[in-house]
Amino acid sequence: MPVPVQSNSAPQAIGAYSQGMVHDGLLYLSGQIPLDPVSGRMVEGDFALQIRQVLDNLQAVCAAAGGRLQNAIKLQVYLTDLGHFAQVNQAMEAEFAPPYPARAVVQVAALPRGAQVEIDGIVALGEAD
C-alpha cells in the first residue's frame, strides 16, 4: 500500500495531493514550484535561484522519505518558457552526477502561482550512494 510522505522543510501542498508517495521502494514526488517553505512566497528574480529552490524543495521531500534526490530515476520539468532550457541543464549538471536521471522538459502555458518552473519525479529509495 502506498505511504504518503510529508516534510515541513518543503512547501505544504496547495491542493488535494501529497508531497510524495512511497510504493515498492520508489518515491513518487509531486511537482514542486519555487515556493519558500518558510514564508510561503514565490522566489522571484533570477531563474537560477528559482530552480535552486525547486531542487531544494524536492530534496526536502526525499529526505523525509529517507532518500536523496541524487537517486532520481526520472524527472519531469515544466517550463513556461523553453528559453530557460540551458539553465535547466546547468542546474541538473550541478545537482547530479552521471549517469543523469532520465528527464523530459516541456513548455506549458502556465503553472500554479505564476511559477516559471515545476519539477516532479521518481526516486529510488534505499540505493547506495
Automatic annotation (TrEMBL):
It holds the Pfam family Ribonuc_L-PSP. One of its GO terms (molecular function) is deaminase activity. GO terms for cellular component: cytosol. Belongs to the RutC family. PANTHER family: 2-IMINOBUTANOATE/2-IMINOPROPANOATE DEAMINASE RIDA (PTHR11803), 2-IMINOBUTANOATE_2-IMINOPROPANOATE DEAMINASE (PTHR11803:SF39). This is RidA family protein. It comes from Acidithiobacillus ferrivorans.
